[in-house]
Each structure stands twice: as structure tokens, then as C-alpha cells.
Amino acid sequence: MKSEQLGIGMTSQRARNRLVAKLREMGIRSETVLELIRTVPRHLFVDEALSSRAYENTALPIGHGQTISQPFVVAQMTEVLLTTGPLQSVLEIGAGCGYQSAILARLVSKVYAIERLATLANKLRSRLHKLDLGNVRVRHGDGRLGWPEMAPFDAILVAAASVDIPQSLLSQLNIGGRLVIPVGAVGAQDLMLLTRTSEGFTEERLDRVSFVPLLEGTG
Ligand code: SAH
């Protein structure tokens, strides 16, 4: 009973509204995205011990040296994909705890999520199942290679920083498809948006960001 009461406090509407107000202040404009941030239960994606901080605008540890992304960054990447073209089929790389997957699942018909750590990938499958998010397929693998069998995608979202832009990801985009990816070494990363056109690719720098590294192989 006590923990239930605590639970209500920790996950309260007030904390969620405060987070939404903060993201609005920081420049997120899409009401659809803000509503998803308000309604998707971020506290269910972190350890119970951290759930009182789930609606703060910060990254939090999820074990294995990895983090759940900062809500602002999740909102920013989602907003950019939503406002730049059609969004039906999305490849997500570095799914981690699955918070970003859950947000995408509420927006698009098909989410293909890749995670390189087996423990996280397995946890993710059962969490998405519990939340009834049947339109997310999870693969344990190296996301740098993409998911060729399911390509082409309207968008590819990478949630770990890469020193280069993996060519295999670019080749798995539709014409008009977008890749949003943090590029650079620890401490000096840019969030980049690449768009595939009939002639090639256009490139735009969106922001300075801080992500865990995109690693080769699986674990
Ligand atoms: N999307 C998550 C953030 C996860 S942090 C969220 O919603 O909060 C980044 C994740 O990328 C980690 O879980 C890490 O294990 C994973 N990762 C790193 N390199 C990868 C690779 N090559 N392929 C797939 N996942 C990778």
C-alpha cells in the first residue's frame, strides 16, 4: 500500500506536466510529441529506485554502463522525424530500455529496434510485450549494419554516437527518408539529420549532444 501511494506521487501528473512545460520552453513545438512525453510512462523504463526521477529532464543509468536518453533529446529526434516527411516504418538503433521505441510505437505503424546487448534486448522484448506495444520488432545485433531484410525505411534513428556515418544505414533509407544520428567523439558530438534525395543526400547539423558510443559487434 505504502509503495503504491509512493508510486502515485512519483509518477504524478504534476511531474509530467512540469516536464512538458520544460521541453516546450526548450523549443519542442509538436503538440503530438509533447502529448506522448506526457503520457508514455517513463518511470516503467527505469529501475524502481530511480522512478522518482523519471520525469526529470535528465539521462538516467539503465545498467551495463548505458543510459535512458534525456527526454528533451528523445522529443527533439522524434519531432524532427515527424515534421520532415512520411513516417510509417522506422529503424531504431540502440534501443536500450525501449523508451524511445515506445514513443515511436505510438506514432508509426512499424518500429524495428536493434540493441547490441543481449540482456537489454531481452528485457526490452518483455517490457514492450507488457505494455502491449505489438508493432515493435526487437533484434539483438549490431545496429551499424541496419536491418536489410526490412529496408527501406522512412526514417532511421540512432541513439548512440558514431564517429562516422555508417554507409549501410544510408543505403537502407527510402528516397525522402531521414537519418538522425549523433556524430563525433565523446564530448564533441553533433546531432545530424541526413535526407536521401533522388540525387544523393542532404545534411543538416541540428544541435550539440552527448550520447554513449555506438560500438561494433554485440555483447
Ligand atoms: N534509446 C534509448 C537510449 C539507449 S542508450 C532510450 O530510449 O533511452 C544507447 C544504446 O545503444 C545502449 O543500450 C547501447 O547498448 C546501444 N548500442 C551501442 N552500440 C550499438 C550498436 N552498434 N547496435 C545496437 N545498439 C547499440
Unreliable stretches (pLDDT < 50, length at least 5) are 1-7
Q: According to CATH, what is the topology?
A: Rossmann fold
Strand order across the largest sheet: 5-4-3-6-7-8-9
What is the H/E order? HHHEEHEHEHEEHEEE
> What is the CATH class designation?
Alpha Beta
Question: How much helix is in the residues?
Answer: 25-40%
- Separation, N- and C-terminal Cα atoms: 39 Å
* Shape assignment: globular
User: Structural class of the secondary elements?
Assistant: alpha/beta
Mean pLDDT: 94
How many β-strand runs? 9
Tell me the number of structural domains: 1
- Residue fraction in strands: 25-35%
Mind telling me the CATH superfamily name?
Answer: Vaccinia Virus protein VP39
Tell me the radius of gyration.
17 Å
Biggest β-sheet: count, sense, barrel?
7 strands, mixed
Give the cofactors and ligands.
Answer: S-adenosyl-L-homocysteine
Helix tally equals 7
Please identify, by name, the CATH architecture: 3-Layer(aba) Sandwich
